[in-house]
Amino acid sequence: MAFALRVWNVGYPAKILFDETYYAKEAWGILHSGYERKWGEDANAQIAEGDLSGFLDAPSYVVHPPLGKMLIALGEWGFGMTPFGWRISAVVFGTLLVFFTIRLARRLSRSTLVGAMAGLILTFDGLAFVMSRLALLDVFQATFAVAAVSALVADRDWFRHKLADHLRSIGEPDLGGRFGPLLLWRPWRVLAGVLFGASCAVKWNSIFMVAAFGILVVFWDLGARRLAGAGRKQWWSLAIDAPAAFVQLVVVAVPVYIASWFRWLTTDGGYYRQWGVENPDDPVVQRVGAALGALWHYHHEAYNFHTGEKMMQEATHPYEAHPAGWLFMIRPIGIEAVNGIEPGTDGCDAVGTTCLRIISAMGTPLLWWFAAAAIAAAVVWWILGRDWRFGVPLLGIASTYLPWFRYADRPLFFFYAIMIIPFSATVLAMALGKILGPVGHPRRRLRAMAVGIVLALIILNFAFIYPILTADLLTKPAWMLRMWLGNAWI
Questions:
Q1: 175, CA 20 to 30 Å: which among 60, 151, 221, 344?
Q2: pLDDT at 205 over 60
Q3: Could you report how far apart the first and last alpha carbons of the chain are, in Å?
Q4: Quick one: CA dihedral 475, 480, 481, 483, positive or negative?
């Protein structure tokens, strides 16, 4: 269902939208040369007409890793330099994001119904919908990140099952103060390292998730051995399990990240690619060689771009949104706007007013506001109720949300919250599961009605804002009916 919603008419509008001007064109360069290349000044208009003569030979300077653009390039390889071609990979990954959210919620809650609710909620979120229909990087980053967290939760179960199997094999009810089996090979955790590396290879800020969940899994291992009866020897886990976790998550992620630069490293024309050859006396070049030395220099310059004074102090944008308002969706971002369509033009039949076509990257309002309340409740359930399950999506939210406050003095945008909404949807679904209660509860039918009403309201709200997610034709008054926070949403 998510795929069908996202793929329908995804080639419209048939032009480059918003930051597709960077990533769709950079993907085309990677596809044909192994590195990003420049385009002429009028390239966007030319591409819309099927004219690719603006594709230049000179390398382009970019500040994000290549994996997301490589995935966009797969669509362009299959369907050409067309809107469908540069957006179809986002559709696929936006659908996978729903899938992995279902799996995460299902495993955390042990409820297929809760997992289904999480998937349904995310399917009908406006932000996830829009970001799944644009050639931007964020949906790829989010999909890899949620898949990585799902793998870590699977590893938690795997580890505890292995400890239980060990106790059965020795015929004992607990470890009796022994440390227990080493279990250093953790396939799910290695997979999580690969997926985290892929997420960082789309955008760097996934490193905060690696750090946060890397700490969490150490506590999970301690808790598992304590539950199995390791006693004081559970603390050996800090010297045995924790270093293994570092290798499986961080050390594994590093070569995955570097591998995403393979085509840049094995070609000669990329931006800064010859820097190592031109600076043989540089200490890094002397230690790791010209190619990796050039890659290091590239990263140094890109980091300076992201954190330099010009970006932090001088840059402004009309749609910048302080992260303090993200969870309440105070300031969504406009992607496309065609205003002032006169009656009789482009199908406009307005009377006494004009029509417009808008794409706004906004979440489904009721979903986000219900989720904000659920997050507050989940904090209580986690800390006071000691329900570890809520800690996973809450940590997912915190590690993808709180680091942005450090950069709040530069332009930030609401669409970065695509990293948050899968975890918010999970929290909301689990909260609805709490409201529903167990089978046999005397008021379960009434509770089920309440849960059903919440889900129905979310779906109806999505349907109501659908025209401003897809550039459908609207009269200006019809558009204003959907701008519930007035100027904050315009």
A1: 151
A2: yes
A3: 30
A4: positive
DSSP string, 92-120: HHHHHHHHHHHHHHHHHHT-HHHHHHHHH
**Helices (DSSP H) in 247-312: which residue ranges?**
252-259, 262-265, 275-278, 283-288, 290-307, 309
Alpha-carbon distances, residue 229 vs 33, 64, 234, 244 (angstroms)? 58, 47, 8, 21
* pTM exceeds 0.90 for this model: yes
Rounded to whole angstroms, how far apart are CA atoms 168 and 85?
54
77 close to 126: Cβ distance less than 8 angstroms: no
- Given a contact cutoff of 8 angstroms between Cβ atoms, the answer to whether 428 and 121 are in contact is yes
Nearest C-alpha neighbor of 328 from the set 381, 379, 366, 378: 366
- Specify whether the CB–CB gap between 451 and 436 falls below 8 A: yes
The 3-state DSSP composition of the chain as helix, strand, coil percent (nearest 5) reads 65, 5, 30
The answer to which of 191-205, 319-333, 456-470 has the lowest mean pLDDT is 319-333
Sign of CA dihedral 265, 267, 270, 274: positive
Segment 116-143 shows an average pLDDT of: 98
Tens digits of per-residue pLDDT, 12-70?
999 999 999 999 999 999 999 999 999 999 999 999 999 999 999 999 999 999 999 99
Half-sphere exposure of 289 (CA within 13 A, CB side): 3
Inter-residue contact 142 to 418 (CB < 8 Å): yes
233-257 pLDDT per residue, tens: 999 999 999 999 999 999 999 999 9
Task: Evaluate whether 140 touches 71 at the Cβ level (below 8 Å).
Answer: yes
213-225 mean pLDDT: 96
CB atoms within 10 A of CB 318: 8
* pLDDT given for residue 312 in this prediction: 54
Strand 355-361, strand 37-39: pairing: unpaired
Structure tokens at 480: 């204003």
What are the extents of the domains in the chain?
Answer: 137-271
**479 CB-near residues (< 8 Å, 6+ apart):** 356, 358, 468
3 state DSSP class of 334: strand
